[in-house]
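Subject: for your reference before the review

Hello V.,

The reviewers asked for a structural picture of the protein, and I figured it would be easier to keep everything in one thread rather than splitting it across files. Below is the amino acid sequence we used in the manuscript, unchanged from the supplementary table.
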Amino acid sequence: MNTSLHAYLEAMRQFPFLAKRSPQQYFRRPGKDFTRTRILHLERVVWLNITLLKCTLRVELDQFFDWLDARQFSPTKSALVQARQKLLPKFFKDMFMFSVSSFYCFFKVRRWKGMRLWAADGTGFRLPDEKWLGEEFGWHGNQHNRVPSTRLLAHYDLLNQIITAAQFHTRYVSETVIAQRSIAQIPKDVCTVYDRGHASHTIPFLHQHYGSHCIIRMPVGFSKTIIAFVASGKKEQIITEKLSYKSRTVLNELGITVTPQTTITYRLIRVILPNDQIEVLLTTLTDTKRFKHSYFSEIYRKRWGIESCFFVLKSFFQLVNFSAYTVNNCWADIFSHFILYNIQTALFTAKAPEIKKINKQRLHNYKPNRNVTAGLLKRVLVKIMLHPIQDIKKWLKGFFRQMLQTIEPVRPDKNKEPRRRLMRGTERHVHEKNYRPAL
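And here is what came back from the structure prediction:
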């Protein structure tokens, strides 16, 4: 078995045991919770939750103990509800961040020009219609009613395909504001790609201030400077100009002292789309020899990876299909989706060389099917994480065999114009025509 994968899975197996050393951080009643040997001990509760509880809990429990082959009767639904309430939301949030750091620690990280390539974007979703959830996550309302709802700003590694960070905010706070506040935590070896919803001078200035880099798609009418650049016909240009009053105000509010004389230097790049439409990219990568103009169109195209990630989470993983109606368990459900996604990516990464060999023998490139492998992983993850460590190889062999049987062709880029669809109603999961639920 791939040594990187073995080390990663072993690290993930150990997190619940590490959490027991800090009960004040993770347990509702430190010194009392998870201190006795029970059928639903900590590790079982954790991995049961991460396999995503989408059916009724009674069915999920029976399936879990059947896959576990523990030769024990499954406990009651009430026992599971009580066990889950013992865990604080911080447990699954920290476990998600642990899945990120462990991936970067044990796998060879794919980079572009020595940098990790991240994308930042936001999405929103509703929660069960309970008052306490609205007070925790926020509300979305109109003149008739309001419902619990939240917004998520995610950072996604485009080359390594893992979710690296997640910040939640209400619908009454702009995701651009949250993105600006998050830049201080972005590592210096990261270049972050933004869509045109984040167009500003504030974001590139913050990246320069904290030592990282960014690429932003700019509306062609964003400013006089952008309009003049488009009219000039140049393919690229390095600009130095004073910060606008709005940018100075935002930066001063963030604790960064700037004056009316403060300037920003950035690079504008012209991109011609297949339909001959002109788009403009702004980047802090001003070294024209190292970062050639021809690179940027492909780099920005990769930003679609974060949109695909949101689709997987909402459609394949059924993010809004919550298993409970309490604050603790809703947080656990949300972060369990991110953890499972990153574990799935780790398994894909371990088999990437073998898939590359398969692609050399085929007309088109193929990749693992996220939907099918999520269903397969739900069944085998319990055995990988809760059976003796020496049995991991046996369970992974069967999973990888099924994964390679269900790989699908990589679809070519679409050239047609995107069609906006107005989504109304309850925002429930919409089943797409080209797949069936696997969880």
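For the response letter, the relevant points are probably these. Confidence is low (pLDDT under 50) at residues 423-433. Residues 110-305 form one domain.

Happy to draft the paragraph if you're swamped.

O.
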